[in-house]
Structure formats: structure tokens, C-alpha cells
Amino acid sequence: MEKMKNMLYNETKKTIDLFGGRTIEISTGKLAKQATGSAVVKQGDTMLLATVVAAKDAKEDTDFMPLSVEYKEKYAANGRFPGGFQKREGKASDYEILVARLIDRALRPLFPKDFHAEVFVNVTLISADPDIQPDALAGLAASAAIAVSDLPFEAPISEVRVARINGEFVINPTFSQMAQGFDLDLMVAATMDNIMMVEGEMDEVQESDMLDAIKFAHEEIKKQCQAQIELMAEVGKTEKRTYCHEVNDDTLKEDVVSSTYDKVYAVAKSKLPKHEREDAFEAVLAEYLQKFTEDELAEKESMIRRYFHDYSLRTAMRNMILDEGVRLDGRTTEQIRPIWCEVGPLPGPHGSSIFTRGETQSLSTVTLGTKLDEKIVDEVLREGSERFVLHYNFPPFATGEAKASRGISRREIGHGNLAFRALKPMIPSPEECPYSIRVVSDILESNGSSSMATVCAGTLALMDAGVKIKKPVSGVAMGMIAEGNRIAILSDILGDEDHLGDMDFKVTGTRDGITATQMDIKVDGLSYEVLAKALDQARRGRMHILDIIEDTIPAPRSQYKPHVPKMIKMIIPKDFIGAVIGKGGEVIQEMQKTSGCTVSVTEVGETGEIEIFGVNQEGIDYVVNKIKGITTIPEEGEVYEGPIKSIVSFGAFVEIIPGKEGLLHISEIDNKRFESMEETGLKEGDILKVKLIEIDQKTNKLRLSMKALLPRDPNAPEEDPKPRKQFNGPRRNDHKGGKDFKKNHGHRENRDYKGNRENTEVKENFDSNAQND
Predict the structure, then answer these.
(1) In what order do the strands lie in the sheet with 388-393?
(2) 0.70 cut: is pTM over it?
């Protein structure tokens, strides 16, 4: 068999010593051999298969890099079935899209600018170790597949996760290590020489600590890049394919630049609004195109447009900033665009805000819900729920684009995730705010930094809703223009400055530190000194924006708004959960239907946690009393008041607490003797005050008495304290909680909860009038 394997494939492997005594293995030549390049990355039991396939040539009139990256996790990798009716993997989850974006952003800048053939990169989790995070290996796998292909690529890259746990940096920490708690979690992608991409969340970390983490990660990445270089040499893929995807005309390029540069520069300095500036640039190009015939344009127009964009427009904007320190909208390099904010513009949502910075605007809302509204997480290696979610929407009209909205884009998922990570550390605990929280940011207009506008608008909306966030958060997008030794760092970049610049560096945080970051660098040789300068400039920008936010609303509102549903949280013994839910959910469904409230029950240790969520106080009171009745244990000697539920020949059944009835025997109604129930004058619905004189320890039947509450007749003989033979007990079983409920109901040795009589604790009352200031 081994001889046959050797005849069919030739596998090459490289081993990398990972920080902490672990190893990573890269192999190629065994799987997916018909792809342009393929590799398997293995750590422990986790295996990722990466493939890259490229078209042989570029499509006509393609002047960009058509790269597509997909990341997929197979449920079989962890021995699980997918959910849903079909029981198979479907479209990519948000998590898979976010991992694919991390890979894409690291790889894309390293393909040659004149390479335009379609490239498809697929990374698949084919085996999973439950404690290893596979996303930290995905970038390495993708780069290794490209390294062993014939595709032109500047240099291998790798990605690692660096976290700070208990004050120490850890490379590619496990799930269990992360569960110990961390204050920094970054994904860093780099080549041997340059940082390419950074993204992550932090708990108010200082700028210097973040830079130290990036440096620490880069040292590990260098080893992984070296292993790929060696692997590439061993499989004989150091020579890459030749291609010609662009036809160039140097004479035409010089003519385009000489004819349009000065006009473009003048437009760039004119401080026009976004669309007027675009129209002015287009007018310059249109004027130049008039010098050509239709036949000439058919051959050369795409080339002219490329030269105009790359050598006139791009160069003019960059030179204007580097030489004069003036930007397209007239600002200096550190100046933030004009900002105006408003809280509570919408009366319906639980919280709302508008944040407008220049020509970028976010309308954000907050909705407060129950535990049932939490986002369900069902990934291959992650299961659970999230009580805080943030959604970002970017409709075409935000940029004046005439097209229909078709679902949620990957960009929207990525931008929303960055804002989510920025605000997440400041969300109060469930003990401080029991609600599930959803923030939605709708971008109404955009000219750069819309994700940072989402962070600021989300902060305002949360405070408007009365959510006691720990501290306000602001965010700013930084840019950079670099030509040799000339470097300009830009605060609060425009869309054109992002597109034509060399860096997009988003930083969010409070006054005390950074909460999230996302950085994409498009040039080589960026020093850590420049990064430090950018971070310091970003901090000053964030402080300026926080001043404006706090001028708008200094702190979260002291109370929730009147139309926010009230929430009552109750704690009951675990044994009563079944009784509250009822057979097939009939009890809890009846409570919800009658009250109009939402009721959720969760098992927490040895107790049950019940959340009652509703607008109507009468409905909430109904549910609370119903649950108290179900979970209350009657106690001998106590006096109760309740209605007669039914009358029989030998007495009446009285409901002493909701759902629990006892027998008031005819002999226990009065000191005088009655021959029939008709003589007593009692009828169904009458409210009686009775004393519980006995609980049968075997049957849990309750014996009630009105006579015991009357003055004793001095002439009456002493009564036998034992139960009378004619006591037959309730005719029906009202206890719907099953065997456990019957076993515990009424037994004194089981009544070991506070108060003995009522096994319910109303833990918190989070309504608009009871919220703590």
C-alpha cells in the first residue's frame, strides 16, 4: 500500500515550531492536486485544506485584481451534524465571512498590480481539535497554497492571533486559554518584512501595549513565512508564470498626465463636496477624450482612464497633501470634519441617535429584548448565545448609487463586526442590565469612515436608551500618504483618501484606552515609529469626538423610556421548572396568552431563572402571582384566602393559592353541625378565609378549616387531632409538574428555601420607574 501511495503522490512537509512548545505542519502534494496550488496546515487534530485556482488569462477589459476568498468549516470535522432540515452546510455564516475577509485583506496587496486573472482561494476546515482556534491558521494555509502554485506573488504571508492573558502575550491561544480572560485579542498578518493587516478587540489597552503585541506576533510570523519559502523551493515553484494582462503606451501616458494633471490639481484644491468634485474630475477627463476619434477611443479609452486615475488624479491628490498639507476638503492633516449629533430623534425605538461627520451620517437605534431574543450561535466549534448584537446597513442611496439592495454584503458584515467589537467591552453585565440589546446602524450618507460613525452613533443611542454603558466610545479612521521619506498621517479620512492612500487604520476607544482596531497597509517598509505616531494622532482625534458626544448627552439616561417593556426576574427552585413550564409547555403558554407577556425559563445551577417581559403591569402581576402559586409550598397552621372552586356533598374545594386546592369538609365550616352543603349557603366563587390544619404526608392532600378561625365553643367536647375518616382530599391532581413536583410538594424536609412558604424570589425589577440612577 505504501508503495502504491508513493507512486500516486509525492507529499512534501515542513514543520514549524510554534510559541509555547507546539508545532504546525504544512504539507502539499497529497490532496487536491488538480488545483493550481494546494496545501494542508495541521496543528494537533486541526487540519485546514487550502486551494488556489487561477484562470489562465485575464478577461477582456479587466483592470483590477478579481480575487475571491472563501472560508468554510465542515461540521463533520468536529463530529457533528449541521442544523436545519437538510442537515448539510449552507451559505457562509457571518463568522466564516469574517475569517475570509481577514485572509483576503492580507493577500490582495501582494499580487502584482498588473495581474488581472481571476483567482479563487478556498480554505476548508476538514478536521477540528475542539480546543484549537482554526481561524488563526487560515491565512497561513491560504498563503502556503499560493506559495506552491505558479501564481506571481510578492512574498508569503502568515496570520497569527496574539492575546494577552494574565499579563502575558500568547500566540494562537486555545479556546480554554481565552476562557481564562484576556484584555487584548489581535489577528496580525505580515510578510517577513512588513505588517499587512491587524484586526482585533481590546479592553481599554494603551497604544504602546498594542504595538508591543504586533511586534510579538511579527516575530512568530517570520518563522512561518520562512517555512513557506523553503517549501516553495523543495517543490520547485520558485519560478512563477509569465503573463501580460495590461497593454501600456508610455507616450499616451505622458500625454494624459501633461494634459490633465494641472486641471486635476486645481479641482482637488477647490474644496468641492464629494459629488461635485467627482463631476469636475470627470469633466476634465471628458475634455481630454474629445481629442480622440471614436475608433481611437474604442482601442484606447480604458487605457486612458487607467492613466488618468493612476497618474493624474492619484498623484495630484497625494502631492497636494505632501507638499502643501491640504486635503481634498480643505482640512489639515489632523483636522476632524465638522460633527453634529442628536439623541432621541425617533420616538418609537427604545433608543436612537444621529451622528453626522462631514458627509458621513449614521442613524442608529437600540432595541431591548428578552433572553429569547439573544442571537443563537451554532458554529462547528462555537455554540451558545450573544445578548448584545450590532447590525450595520449600507444602502446604495448612501453614496447616491442607483441600484437595488440585494441582501447583506460581506462589507456590511465586516464593518458591523468592527463596531460590535468596539462597543462590546462597554456593555453592562446582565446583573446591571438584564435586557438583550440590539444596535442597528443605518448609514444614510457616506464619504468615508462609516464604521467609525456607527461606533459613535451606537454609543449615543445606547445612552439615549438608558443602557448604563461603562464609558462612551468613539472611533476615527486614519490614513497615510507615503512617498519615500515624505509621510503624511491623515485623521478622519475621506473615501478618496482611503482609496488613493496607503493605509486605512481604524481605532476606537474610551478616554482610558483602545477597545478595537482594524488596519490595512498597502505599502512596504512602514516603521513602528510611524504606527506609533498614527496611534497618538488617532487618540487626539478620539478625544475630540468624545468631547462632542458628551456635550450631546453627558451620561446614560437615568431611566428607561416609558414604552420600554418592563422586566421582572424571578428565581425558583430547580425542581419547580417542570411545573412552571407544564406538560408540553401548556402552563407557560397559557400564562403568555393570558397576560400578553413573554416568559422565559432557564436552568441556572440548582435554581431556575425566570424572565417576565411585558408592557402591561397587570399582565406582569398575573404571571408573577401565577408562578408564585405554582412554586409556593403551603404550610400547616397558616391562614389563606381564596375562592371556592367546586362544591361536593361532603364539603368544598377552596383554592388557597393559584393552582393548589384543599378540602374544606362540611364539619370544618362552622361550630354548628350542617346536614348538607345547601344549609351552609356557600356557592362557587365565594371568597373564604381558611386555615390549613393538615397536609397528608403520603398524598399531599390539604385539609382546611373555617371553624378553626372561630372562637371556640366552651361547651364543645375536645376534638380528636387525628384526621377524620371522611376526609377524602381533592378529587383531581392540580400539580402539573410531574413526579419531582409531587415528591417535593408539601414535604417539610424539602422546604429548605428562604421563607419556607414561598419558593420564589423576585430578584430584580427593571422597569422604567424602578431602575437605579
Answers:
(1) 339-343, 351-357, 360-369, 436-445, 388-393
(2) yes
